[in-house]
Amino acid sequence: MNSDANPVATLFWSFALMSLFAVGGANSAIPEMHRVAVDVRHWMNERQFADIFAISQLSPGPNVLIVTLIGYHVAGIAGALAATVAMCGPTAVVAYYVSGLLARSSHARWPAIIQAALVPLSIGLMGASGLILAQTSDRSWVAALISVAAAVLAFATRLNPLWMLLAGGALGFAGLI
Amino acid sequence: MPENSTSAGAPAPDLSPFPPPTPPGLLELFVAFAKMSLAGFGGVLVWARRGIVDQHRWMTADEFNETFALCHFLPGPNIVNLSVVFGSRFRGIPGGIAAFAGLVFPPMLIAIVLAALYARYGEIDALRRILAGISCAAVGLLIAVVFKMAMPLVTRRDATGLMILIAVFFAIGVLRLPLQMVLLIAIPLSLAITVLVRRRGKA
């Protein structure tokens, strides 16, 4: 199924490149992860991608762990490590140097401008993540209804998101989806 | 390692404007970020703020906001950037690595265990149904975050911002264009528009 000579190296380069374009965090890069993992590399199918997203939300820790899970799926522990380090490393180096630069030139004006320009972009990217994941997860009316209910609850209340994930799991177990 | 009972134990007055000047050690950085990370279901930011600002008083609320804003406009996982910037501010590159390792590796072990279970038992029917339900809820949570983040643009009637948001959403979500291609066009465009709008606002 996988034609790569060295899947760990492919994982590494795919995610290292992606990390520099992940404007607004790991969730903004989900459409690109989906495109690479499902459409381009055929590492997994739609359903497996949706499952991996669910598992990543269920684990504690930063959202970037979805990358760890994709890496593990492709090449075990080595793949998990390679994907995670690749996704975090390049931007960590950038962050280290930029923060050093900014500390020296106090009150630079451009971070505010860049941020104002990037915020709508990153929200658009996260919206696209939502759409793509909804298309893979919500395959029935009840499923879509659960998503809508979770969205409304999370938007309107301060309920811990873990409760909504557990409720979704319970409804799924009960065979409602 | 300095004793950490001073920061965690005694209920210090909440309004003290000065965080203690004792910088955290490497192990302390690792442990603090591991705790924040393991507490953070659906995002670590809230816990990072609580740990850094409220509990340890390593930064004031304003310093934290500034640092987070910087990490938000840089590419990559924000909270990962924050850990590196924060750790290196106190202890140089080793501090950055210690904070990063604390943030990523303990939850990574948990995620790998879950992934191994999934690889082994993922086809069992009951587990399939549970996962399907969880992913429906998880999608809803993500959509809620999108709306929460978009609300300030709506209330500010930021028409250009909303147009850029919708264009990127359409290009990536509906047309499924590659991320790099879209961003190489969208970032310069959005920057140019932002600069133009700000200039006109001032004139």
Can you characterise this structure?
The complex is a heterodimer of chains A (177) and B (203). Chain A is mainly α and 177 residues long. In chain A, 77% of the residues lie in helices and 0% in strands. Chain A has 7 helices and no strands. In chain A, helix 3 (46-58) crosses helix 4 (65-104). The longest helix of chain B is centred in the middle third of the chain and has 44 residues, at 78-121. Chain B has helices at 5-8, 26-39, 45-55, 61-73, 78-121, 125-155, 159-174, 179-202. Chain B is mainly α. Chain B has 8 helices and no strands. The chains are: A mainly alpha (177), B mainly alpha (203). At the A-B interface, helix 1, helix 2, helix 3, helix 4 and helix 5 of A face helix 2, helix 4, helix 5, helix 6 and helix 7 of B.
Relevant terms:
heterodimer, A: mainly alpha, 77% helix, globular, B: 203 residues, mainly alpha, 8 helices
